[in-house]
Amino acid sequence: MTHDRSGGPVLVVTKELDPAADLVVAELTSRRVPVMRLDMGDFPETVSLSAEHAAGPWAGVLTDASRSVRLEEVRAVYYRRPRLPVVSAQLREPHLTWAREQALAGLLGTLYALPVTWVNRPDVDGIASHKPGQLPVAAAHGLRTPRSLITTDPQAARTFCRETDGRVICKPLMGGPLEYPDGRRTGVPTHVVDPDTLDDSVRLTAHLFQEWVPKSHEVRLTVVGGDMFAAEIHAGSDAARVDWRSDYDALSYDVCRVPDDVRAGVLGWLEHFRLAFGAFDFAVTPAGHWVMFECNPSGEWSWIQNRTGLPIAARIADLLAEGRP
Length: 325
Known about the structure:
alpha+beta, Dna Ligase, domain 1, Rossmann fold, D-amino Acid Aminotransferase, Chain A, domain 1, 3 domains
């Protein structure tokens, strides 16, 4: 039996505090699109699932303390960095880890099987988020990329610095803050490398070194379903010129046009990874060339919308309301 999902709810799967998800929920609500927002971290303790498969898609009910939705009516899923399931503290290892894995497989696996639009599916998102895989795909689609080295060998790092024409930077291979035992959280910014300081500590983990790209400014390019929302980011401090995330107060913004060759490359990149959404970081050189650094498939965008007025939330809501897989 085929169910009509066109008037059904959109699932917004995210953590409790997420400004981007707030904007999307508000946009959907203004259009009278029903929404159920949940955090996977509340499953299975305060969110429950009952799903049955017979001859077609999963059917059943997903419920929290205040609402419920039928799985066969869900039209789309917006997925943004939820917590992992938290099971009862009554369990002890090895049953605790086993139960947590069962909860994740049960909830996320059932949602994966729904024939609906995702922005973005987390399995696809995870593959696309790895920087070592991003750069060759970008180059294959005609985008400029910086010369890069991933290494645990300090001598290889020194050689790269010596052979690179100009400065070299080092940046994290993946996002995420440093979390200290006292609860402090700090980011790990991109920094310029002094080759004379490279020592055996390079062997402790993988490092990403890249040639310095001269910048007129940078661009955060948010792409939703093929539509492009480009914002110039102009740095007003030395720290922001190396990594604009280091000094948000020193930034100014402007809306800009995306060159045709960059547009084609970005669309090819997204199609390769089967993504409906991506937040790209580019440097624009003094000669006007766009150089791609990376793409975050679940990147932040709410502050760009707030600073520029670009209608990113409205376009995401369009995709979710249309609900076409």
